[in-house]
Amino acid sequence: MLGKGAFGAVRAIEGYPELAVKEVMIKNDDAKFMELTEHELKTVKRLSHPGVIKYHQAIRDESHIFIIMYRYHWDLQRLITAHRRTNKPVPKGLAFSILEQVADALAYLHNPYKMAADGSSSHGVVYRDLKPANTLMTRDGQRVVLADFGLCKDALHNEGTFAGTPDYMAPETFIRHETSTASDIWAFGVVMYELATMEVPSFSHFWKAEDAKAFFVSGWRPDLRAIEDDFVRTVLEKIFVLDPAERPTARQLCDLLREFNASATGMKLRISALESALEDANARNASLEKALQASSAENKSLKETVAAQAVEVGFLREGIKRLVARDSSWTPLMCAAFIGNIEMAREHLFDKDEKNRDGETALMLAAKAGHEGIVELLDPTDSDDVTALMRAADRGDVETVRHLIPLQKRRRTTYGWNIREGTALMIAAAQGHTEVVRLLVEHEGGMEDLYGRTALMYAVRNGRLECVKLLIEKEGHMQDSDGQTALMYAAGNGHPECVELLVEKEGNMYDRFGWNAFDHARRKGNPECMELLRNEMLFYEPPLRLIVDEFDTSFFNRPRSNLVSPQY
User: Fold this and answer.
1) Could you give the CA distance from residue 189 to residue 167 in angstroms, rounded to a whole number?
2) CATH code where residue 246 lies
3) 101-146: per-residue pLDDT in tens?
4) End of a domain among 70, 86, 106?
5) Do residue 91 and residue 215 come from a single domain?
6) Where is ATP bound in this sequence (predicted)?
7) How many whole angstroms separate alpha carbon 487 and alpha carbon 197?
8) What is the pLDDT of residues 289-321, one digit of tens each?
9) Contact 70, 19 (CB under 8 A)
10) For residues 191 and 193, what is the distance between their CA atoms, to the nearest angstrom?
11) What is the mean pLDDT of residues 139-161?
């Protein structure tokens, strides 16, 4: 047994160290509890983010619901309690890493245009129960996920409701029974305060509406005297404000924390570099006398360098004149991009969308000439590490992609296009830009995103048949972190034409939970794919298939005889 609560327990599964089974006791006389449980399962099923708990399957017998999930070592509440007992603060690096991951997960939940687990669009979600006990962690704290979505709601609706854990509830919830994404941000602030001090703020507790209204009045400011870190205090001052509209968004908090973590790491590197530079300086001082003896020779060399640079500047000036004289369609920016003059390029950025008579932009010319600094000036890599090549791949700009490949191939996003650690090839495949895929496959074929997904998987998930044909040789037979293949994605998303292409190469493969492509087609109700696979595939029943049945919340109404008892 890994843990026990009021409504059940979490147990390990023998033979599957990465998995656990959550047992939830059924209370037939508690309709509200059953409603919340079903709501949680439906919500988690459509979410797909590394910071959100993933439930793989769920089944039911007469007395319990059994949910198969990844296994986590502990939760944030236990971490805080352990440090409180020893009177030792949570290490700052670990605390900021946890907060950044939680903020990133909230940003995903709050995003009204996010991609659901099945590839469809999904509305924003208000979590409504952010607290340390619902924040699960690996043993080293390097991976954090949010759990328990029974109280979450659609962010589009702000109807009066009172839900959550009092210590982490915002003033507007006590006073007006309102919850929104800004209420989640208040709860995030309480968690941040608790990580810094091992205690919740003095104003974090249950409030009657009239008491809250009398306490949280215009001009109220939080008592943050216990916060020693200036950065934490500044962030909490932004969060603990009474007007929900004035609180930062989860994405803003995530970017702020990410920037702070990066700057802290950068400072360590700079200190190390300075120490190294000091050692080098000492070594140079030891040979100073020898260097002085050679000073006359060095002075002569310096004069020669200056003269050579003057000649080069003159050549560049004449080169620009010749370019303009030869082709009047070249703008000054194109000339600067071609010769690599970044200062001149900065003065003419307003021309960056212009094309010469050959259809080339300044960006293409800079890429062709290998001037990476100018490329970054014209189409900079953004905070999600999305490059000019990726943007060109997204819009299907074949010629720009062709020129940028030598400079920017094999780079990864952090979170561009909702693809964590994705590539330009994955983006092009998802969009169905066949000619771009043809260019990129030899350079980026075989690469995987954070979840082990390939460009082929993104192509089949979106039914991009021509792209599938280009990628199958390079990426067929690969599996993602859950063991799923491109064929399983095709079957689950109802693309029979892709199934026909892939079945010979991947037909007898199974994911880590014992499911094959036929199972995925059956679970999603795709009869045409099922028929194709029924005739082509061989079947066997791996051990894990005895543990679980389809993850379909209609199990609440299924007869007991249709379900398989869990084995531990």
Assistant:
1) 11
2) 1.10.510.10
3) 999 999 999 988 665 555 555 678 898 899 999 999 988 778 899 9
4) 70
5) yes
6) 22
7) 50
8) 555 555 555 555 555 555 544 544 444 444 444
9) yes
10) 5
11) 73
> Whose structure tokens read 């469809």?
120
- Alpha-carbon gap, residue 531 to 522, rounded angstroms: 10
Q: Do 64 and 79 belong to one domain? A: no
Q: What is the CATH number of the domain that holds 63?
A: 3.30.200.20
Whether residues 54 and 17 fall in one domain: yes
Kindly list the distances between the CA atom of residue 543 and the CA atoms of 365, 481, 514, 515, 546, in Å, as whole numbers in the listed order.
58, 19, 7, 11, 6
Phi, psi at residue 68, to the nearest 5°?
-90, 130
Task: List the one residue out of 363, 355, 366 whose CA is nearest residue 327.
Answer: 355
Same domain, 65 and 138: no
The answer to whether residue 385 is domain-embedded is no
Say if residue 56 is in the same domain as residue 117: no
Q: What is the mean pLDDT of the chain?
A: 82
Residues 57 and 113 in one domain: no
Residue with structure tokens 């249950």? 206
The two three-digit tokens of residue 362, written as one number: 């300044």
Beta-carbon contacts of residue 224 (< 8 Å; ≥ 6 apart) = 193, 233, 236, 237, 240
Domain boundary pick from 18, 47, 70? 70
Q: How many structural domains are present in the chain?
A: 2
Please give the annotated binding residues, written as ranges.
22
Match 């979505």 to its residue by tokens: 149
**Looking at the domain assignment, is residue 211 inside a domain?**
yes
- The residue whose two tokens read 């070592």 is 73
Do 130 and 52 lie in one domain? The reply is no
258 C-beta neighbours (distance < 10 Å), count:
16
- Alpha-carbon torsion (515, 519, 525, 527), positive or negative: positive
pLDDT, position 564:
33
Q: Residue 49: which domain range?
A: 3-70
Asked, for residue 27, whether it belongs to a domain, the answer is yes
Q: Which residues are annotated as a binding site for ATP?
A: 22
CB 463 within 8 A of CB 491: no
Strands (E) across 376-448 are located at none
Residue 494 lies in a domain: no
- H or E, element range at 307: helix 295-326
**Do 177 and 152 fall within a single domain?**
yes
Number of other CB atoms surrounding residue 562 within 10 Å: 9
Nearest CA to 144 out of 11, 43, 254, 218 is that of 254
- Which of 143, 153, 201, 205 lies closest to 174, judged by CA? 205
Angle between helix axes 332-339 and 362-369 (nearest 10 degrees) is 10
Contact 461, 119 (CB under 8 A): yes
Structure token pair of residue 70: 């990844």
